[in-house]
Amino acid sequence: SSAHAAKYDAVVEVTGSPAGLKLAAALCRPMGTVVLKSTCAAGEEFNAAPFVIDELRVVGSRCGPIDRALELLSLKAGGDYGEVSAEMVKPLGVEKYVTKVFPLKEAGEAIKCAAEKSTMKVQIVCSDR
């Protein structure tokens, strides 16, 4: 709707459709960011004008098999991985990139922390697991 036009600093487009991309660009304020979570595979013409005129930044999010990604993230050094030798298993060690972890009830503080220049990443934990 026109009430939401050019209102948002960042818009995440997850439909993968040409209409979704067009809507995301329309919702994003000039010099804002459109995050593409899905690829837009339809063979429709692409109108770059809104992206150029409004100087929109487009950020992609790599897709892939989430089950394999979670498996790789869970690897620990020296763990027992069957036929794979411990020397071949190299944990990703992504914890070093997380500046601070927040429970969901402190999401507001997490966003403030994420906005600080010294912060690399914040993690918001949504459950007690």
What does this protein structure show overall?
By secondary structure, the protein is of the alpha/beta class. The protein contains 4 helices and 5 strands, in the order βαβαβαβαβ. The strands form 2 sheets. The chain has a 3-stranded parallel beta sheet with strand order 1-2-3, with helices on one face. It has a two-stranded parallel ribbon with strand order 4-5. Helix 4 links the parallel strand 4 and strand 5. The model has no long low-confidence stretch (mean pLDDT 83).
Element layout with pairings:
Elements lengths: L7 E6 L4 H10 E9 L12 H5 L3 E4 L5 H8 L26 E4 L3 H9 L6 E4 L4
Parallel strand pairs: 1-2, 2-3, 4-5
Which key features would you list for this structure?
alpha/beta, 129 residues, two-stranded parallel ribbon, 21% strand, 4 helices, 25% helix, three-stranded parallel sheet, single chain
- The percent range for helix content is 10-25%
The N- to C-terminal Cα distance equals 39 Å
**Which strands sit side by side, in order, in the main sheet?**
1-2-3
User: How many whole angstroms does the radius of gyration measure?
Assistant: 19 Å
- Which ranges are low-confidence, i.e. pLDDT below 50, for 5 or more consecutive residues? none
Order of helices and strands: EHEHEHEHE
- How many helices does DSSP assign? 4
Number of strands: 5
Largest sheet: 3 strands, parallel
Assembly state: single chain
The helix/strand class is: alpha/beta
Q: Give the amount of beta strand, in percent.
A: 15-25%
- Mean pLDDT, all residues: 83
User: What is the approximate shape?
Assistant: extended
